[in-house]
Design goal:
39% of the residues lie in helices and 26% in strands. It has 3 helices and 6 strands. It has helices spanning 2-10, 15-59, 66-79, and strands at 63-64, 88-97, 103-111, 134-145, 155-164, 173-174. A hairpin with a 5-residue loop joins strand 2 (88-97) and strand 3 (103-111). Helix 2 packs antiparallel against helix 3 (66-79).
Length: 175
């Protein structure tokens, strides 16, 4: 019996199978992690392109009506497809800087978040806005639900703020 146990201890027949059994779960976790990161990066690109497209739609007009704004806000979920549109939040605002350098909100509309109040002071990033000019600011946020919620990587927000100057006038008016 002792001789049989010693001969089993010296055998190398199943070493590869044991090594594979130890390494396979780790490799599968790495693979699934790469897939999850790829999906999150795809959502990030969609959020950026959505913010850009919505800002472009508003900046091309000189007067935005309620119907036009409703259609622009409704375009957001379509732009993030094939991802679900329900976690998408959008805020579109017009910000004007007076000649003394104070910037404030002219108007703001939102879907899924609170619009900024008219007349609210706003501090834009340096170089974005100059005195006597206005910008269209689009803020887009998307709550991404990870497939790895069970191990602590659950939800996180992907957000983008996009600024564009009006193309047809100094200020895009709101009716």
């Amino acid at each position: 019996m002792i001789r049989f146990i010693r001969s089993l201890a010296r055998r190398q027949d199943g070493v590869s199978a044991v090594e594979f059994a130890l390494i396979a779960p780790i490799m599968m976790l790495f693979y699934l992690g790469v897939v999850e990161v790829s999906l999150a990066l795809g959502v990030d690109r969609k959020v950026t392109s959505t913010a850009s497209a919505l800002a472009d739609l508003v900046a091309q007009d000189d007067v935005i009506t309620d119907d036009e704004m409703a259609q622009i806000l409704a375009a957001g979920p379509v732009l993030v497809a094939p991802h679900p549109g329900t976690p998408l939040q959008i805020r579109i605002s017009s910000v004007t800087m007076n000649l003394t350098g104070d910037a404030e909100v002219d108007w703001s509309d939102a879907r899924g978040m609170t619009p900024l109040g008219e007349g609210t002071r706003y501090t834009p990033p340096t170089g974005i806005l100059s005195p006597g000019r206005s910008i269209i600011m689009v803020e887009v946020s998307y709550r991404y639900d990870s497939a790895f919620a069970e191990i602590g990587v659950g939800r996180f927000d992907i957000a983008e703020t996009f600024y564009l100057r009006p193309r047809r006038s100094l200020v895009v008016s709101r009716q």
